[in-house]
Amino acid sequence: DAGVTQSPTHLIKTRGQQVTLRCSPKSGHDTVSWYQQALGQGPQFIFQYYEEEERQRGNFPDRFSGHQFPNYSSELNVNALLLGDSALYLCASSYYNEQFFGPGTRLTVL
Amino acid sequence: QKEVEQNSGPLSVPEGAIASLNCTYSDRGSQSFFWYRQYSGKSPELIMSIYSNGDKEDGRFTAQLNKASQYVSLLIRDSQPSDSATYLCAVLLGGGADGLTFGKGTHLIIQP
Lengths: 110, 112
Hints:
Shape of chain A: globular
Oligomer: heterodimer
Radius of gyration of chain B: 13 Å
Largest sheet of chain A: 7 strands, mixed
Distance between the termini of chain B: 40 Å
Structural class of chain A: mainly beta
Helix content of chain B: under 10%
Mean pLDDT of chain B: 94
Number of strands of chain A: 11
Distance between the termini of chain A: 37 Å
Low-confidence stretches of chain B: none
Number of helices of chain A: 0
Low-confidence stretches of chain A: none
Order of helices and strands of chain A: EEEEEEEEEEE
Structural class of chain B: mainly beta
Number of helices of chain B: 0
Order of helices and strands of chain B: EEEEEEEEEEE
Largest interface: A-B, 29 and 25 residues
Strand content of chain A: over 45%
Largest sheet of chain B: 6 strands, mixed
Strand content of chain B: over 45%
């Protein structure tokens, strides 16, 4: 049974560019949450998708947007990249309370 | 503002001893509590979840919850060098329709 998968593994962008990150949830899971983890910090909640709609959102600007597809996979889009957006972006899937993380996408903004 | 506090460490424990990791949280409405282990350069891995007051044991791990004191802990018995990692405490407010609030993590070092 495949766990949560994310692509790409690493990404390098320059300031002002846009990026799209992808996530496929664990089989049987219908909810996808996205987190940003800066170095030395715990993950910070960005938003959660359920039934193709954004259900909850953390304290992140509108530059961060997302989408969930009918097969429960999800995308995270970040527009107008800033240097401070450099971080590990984590996707977590869940059916109820327990959230399981994918391997993450390391984004570097130059 | 929901907050989760952990001592960042490093916490150094001899091999074979008990490692004790602590976490406090600010929101009394919190319902679900989790411990994740994160190795350097890797993503968090769920190791324990606890929902009601008391102890929950799973192998060498025991999670303890005291909602009155807003306190969660994780005990690791017979600590092994492979337990060396950052341990993240996470709290969920409602019944799943919310994001996890994480502490900054405690860096645990098991000394051989």
